[in-house]
Amino acid sequence: MKFLPTLYKKLTFSLTLFALTFSAISCSEDEDAPAGASTVTLEFQNQFEGQTLTLGQEYTNAHGHRVKFNSFRYYISNVKLSRPDGTQYVQPDSYRLIERTDERIRESFDLLEVPAGAYTSLTFSIGVDPTRNHSTDQVGDLDPNHFMAWNWDTGYKFLVAEGQYFNTAEATFRNFIYHVGHDANYRTVTLNLPSGWKLNGQDKTLALTVNAKTLFGGPNVIDLSATGFSTIHGGANAALVADNFQQMFQVKQGQ
Q1: Span of the secretion signal (predicted)?
Q2: Measured between alpha carbons, how far is 92 from 6 in angstroms, rounded to an integer?
């Protein structure tokens, strides 16, 4: 019967076509399916107007003063990544100290087990929220041995910046000391992520530039030689510095 070989060939061709089609669909679904969790490294690139912040090096601030830093430290807390639908990944107990001092440079930390998917923005705060600021539950980097807790008041220093500025009236360098804390000076930042930023199970680094020049001119241009502005330990002028340091951060493009 001649029609049997022909029928066999047709059945073989149909089954092959079906297998190829199913394989293509399966591959497509695999490519679109969410992969495992990722580790995201947040990297804080401390700079002064585009230059890497180098201790002891002279820079010119927004008021025109020559300034140089001995130390630059701040807390990053309550880190969140937002998805297009408004839901969020919240990093638990994310209280991390970023610092550049003679003793240590620590400018990154990891977000662990971040679920796969697309993300549109990064939110974090500078400082320690009121609940933890007055708590003995020292999670993350809240150990007082980091010397970021007040020794005369309750709570933490949110930002420490110390160095010298050139006082033109006296023709000499004078110290500036910024120790900013207290609940009223806790600030939150939300930054848009690059378009199409997503995780598919691979580890990734998200770099932020941090412009220390903004401390002296964010929205508030600060004259270090004016009374009360070269030494700040909380107080009314600390709010002006807090408004400035809220503007220090930008997501580095091209990642």
Answers
A1: 1-28
A2: 66
Distances (CA, A) of 165 to 64, 86, 214, 244: 10, 44, 15, 18
Burial class of residue 164 in the structure, from the number of CB atoms within 10 Å of its CB (0-12 exposed, 13-18 middle, 19+ buried): buried
Alpha helices (H) in the chain, listed in sequence order: 3-32, 130-133, 236-245
Nearest-5° angle of CA 192, CA 98, CA 255?
Answer: 35
3-class secondary structure, 204: strand
**What pLDDT sits at residue 11?**
36
For residue 80, list its beta bridge partners: 90, 123
* Entry pTM: 0.85
Both tokens assigned to 110: 């990891």
Radius of gyration of the chain measured on its C-alpha atoms: 26
| Tens-place pLDDT, residues 114-141 | 999 999 999 999 999 999 999 888 889 9
What is the C-alpha separation between 132 and 96, in angstroms, rounded? Answer: 13
**Burial (0-12, 13-18, 19+ Cβ within 10 Å), 141:** buried
- Whether 6 shows a pLDDT value over 90: the answer reads no
Residue count (the chain): 255
Token couple for 54: 């180098």
3-class secondary structure, 174 = strand
Task: Using alpha carbons only, give the angle 233, 237, 240 rounded to the nearest 5 degrees.
Answer: 120
